[in-house]
Structure formats: structure tokens, C-alpha cells
Amino acid sequence: MSALAQTPPINMEAVSRIKQAIADGKYPINLDLVSERLMESYIEMKG
């Protein structure tokens, strides 16, 4: 419970706006960067 008190609150309005922008195809997503980070995580997990 104390760990939750130390984290910043989540702005659900902003989250909703971002989700809608993604659904509308209006949120820039760098697929190369996402792929790179996924591979890094996989390699780290396997390491």
C-alpha cells in the first residue's frame, strides 16, 4: 500500500486521449524502436 502512495497518480483522461489517438491512427508509433526494445528485452530475459 505504501508503494502505491509513492507513485504519481494516473491521469485517466490523458490515457483515454492517447488510446483514442492510437485507435484513430493519429498517434505516432516508432515501430523500429518498439521492435528494438522488444528484442533487447528478450535477449536480456534469455541472458
UniProtKB/TrEMBL annotation:
Pfam families: FlgM
Domain Anti-sigma-28 factor FlgM C-terminal intervals: 2-40
InterPro entries (alphabetical): Anti-sigma-28_factor_FlgM_sf, FlgM_C
Protein name: Anti-sigma-28 factor FlgM C-terminal domain-containing protein
Organism: Celeribacter marinus
